[in-house]
C-alpha cells in the first residue's frame, strides 16, 4: 500500500472483451473496460432515464487475471475494487489518458445475475 492511494469500488458492466497477455517477467495480465451507467427514475415521465456514465480501464494480474479471463465476458455485471489513477500515454495522434483501476478484487454483481460458486476442498476444511 502506498501513501495517498485512491481506492475505489465500482459496479457496472464489462463492455470490451477481456484481453490477456503475459508480461516479460512471466506475470499474467488481463484488462477490460467497465461502464458504470447511472439510471434514475423520472417521476414526471414515469420512465427510467440515463444519467452520467463512468468508463474505467480495469486491469489485474496473476491468479485474478486468470480467473477473470476464464469466467467473465462482455455485458457481465461486476463489482471491482482497487486503486484508481489517471494513466497518461502518447499515441500517434498525441497525448491520451485513461482512468484506470488496478483491481484487487473482481466479482459478479449478484443483484443482477446468478452464479454457482465452485469451492475448493481446502477452503472448506477447518483450520488446524
TrEMBL record:
<dbReference type="InterPro" id="IPR012340">
    <property type="entry name" value="NA-bd_OB-fold"/>
</dbReference>
<dbReference type="InterPro" id="IPR000424">
    <property type="entry name" value="Primosome_PriB/ssb"/>
</dbReference>
<keyword id="KW-0238">DNA-binding</keyword>
<protein>
    <submittedName>
        <fullName>Single-strand DNA-binding protein</fullName>
    </submittedName>
</protein>
<dbReference type="Pfam" id="PF00436">
    <property type="entry name" value="SSB"/>
</dbReference>
<dbReference type="GO" id="GO:0003697">
    <property type="term" value="F:single-stranded DNA binding"/>
</dbReference>
Amino acid at each position: 500500500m502506498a501513501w495517498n492511494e485512491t481506492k475505489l469500488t465500482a459496479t457496472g458492466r464489462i463492455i470490451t472483451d477481456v484481453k490477456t497477455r503475459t508480461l516479460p517477467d512471466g506475470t499474467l495480465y488481463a484488462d477490460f473496460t467497465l461502464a458504470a451507467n447511472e439510471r434514475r427514475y423520472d417521476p414526471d415521465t414515469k420512465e427510467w432515464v440515463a444519467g452520467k456514465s463512468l468508463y474505467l480501464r480495469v486491469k489485474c494480474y496473476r491468479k485474478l487475471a486468470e480467473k477473470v479471463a476464464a469466467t467473465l465476458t462482455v455485458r457481465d455485471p461486476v463489482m471491482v475494487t482497487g486503486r484508481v489513477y489517471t494513466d497518461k500515454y502518447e499515441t500517434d495522434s498525441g497525448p491520451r489518458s485513461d482512468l484506470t483501476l488496478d483491481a484487487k478484487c473482481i466479482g459478479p454483481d449478484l443483484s443482477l445475475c446468478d452464479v454457482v460458486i465452485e469451492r475448493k476442498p481446502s477452503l472448506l476444511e477447518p483450520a488446524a
